[in-house]
Amino acid sequence: MNQPIIVLNCGSSSIKFAIIDATNGDATLSGLAENLGNHDARIKYKSGGNKYEADLPENADHKSALGVIQSIIKERNCSPVAVGHRVVHGGEAFTRSVLITDEVKQAIEDTAHMAPLHNPANLAGIECAQEAFPELPQIAVFDTAFFQSLPQKAFIYAIPYKLYKQHGIRRYGFHGSSHLFVSQRAANLVSKSITQCNMITAHLGNGCSITAIKNGRAIDTSLGFTPLEGLVMGTRCGDIDPSLPAVLINQCGYTAEEVDTLLNKQSGLLGISQLSNDCRTLEEQAINGNKHAQLALDVFCYRLAKYIGSYMAITGKLDAIVFTGGIGENSDYIRANVLSYFEHLGIKVSEEENRKARFGEIGNINTLPLPVYVIPTNEEWVIAKDALKLAK
Predict the structure, then answer these.
(1) How many CB atoms lie within 10 A of CB 265?
(2) Which of 127, 177, 187, 193 could join 379 in a cystine, given CB atoms 3.0 to 4.6 angstroms apart?
(3) pLDDT one-digit tens code per residue, 365-385
(4) Is 332 a catalytic residue?
């Protein structure tokens, strides 16, 4: 029996939307409202194998876009049973997905300072969806919930402890729905209960994170208080010397706002290559001899390999390593280069299987006993399944 769920992911100027069958993960509709608040706001969506566009008023906001999305959904005659919302930051208040109440909305607002680019937009989307779909239960699914199992030694920063107690400053982690999904799929592939599995999962896209999982529970992850820490990303710097912002402000003349923009939007692959944040472009340019493109890829792979090595030390005997996300699923170059650092530990990439995985096949790309899987993620299905459970 089909169980259609509306899945919404509201950003500051966009809304990703889909209708997902919670029983099997199939998307009967998927789309994106983009450039909200601008003159070129628009909606593009796919349904039944066909692509469509819908007009939006100039400078359309979330509310007007959701009105159009509501009409698109009603045209499908699918009778959705709930709305699932991706919420980026739940702080320590939420260890699992919840039915949205006024108290839940207040808690999301209270954590907005931890994700100022995301939580206010998530909350605006929730309130608009409640107006657009008043008859449906609304469920919040938090990126941070999967990481509430981290031990204190993993999430406490080495700064005055009172900052954690008074302001909640600690490591939270993100991309939780993706790490949860691929770890469960990997457990199925090795024919073990997730509670018996140790693995390392790498979500690599424009935003990147890596997670150490022991007995099915996250024990460490690379993203921190915000989604800036950790790996090199498309435009985000990842780990840097914490004194660098002060140097940029005091010696280089940057404002605090300019530093924030530099580290979040002008760094990472884009900053090193001086060319692009798109891994495909950098791989093409590196082949053509672009030294900055090659350097960006080298730094990306080196940093990821260091994290994998450190997580091997804390997970114990591994059952699998998993690559997912746009880069993780599609770049055989990145996977091969990262894993080349571990040949002395019994990891040797199969060129054929690694190449096949680039075309969407789930597969083990390691020729030796430790499985290294490429698994396409499906965060929307995670949201839909949680929404269905809580809507009943």
Answers:
(1) 14
(2) 177
(3) 998 889 999 999 999 999 999
(4) no
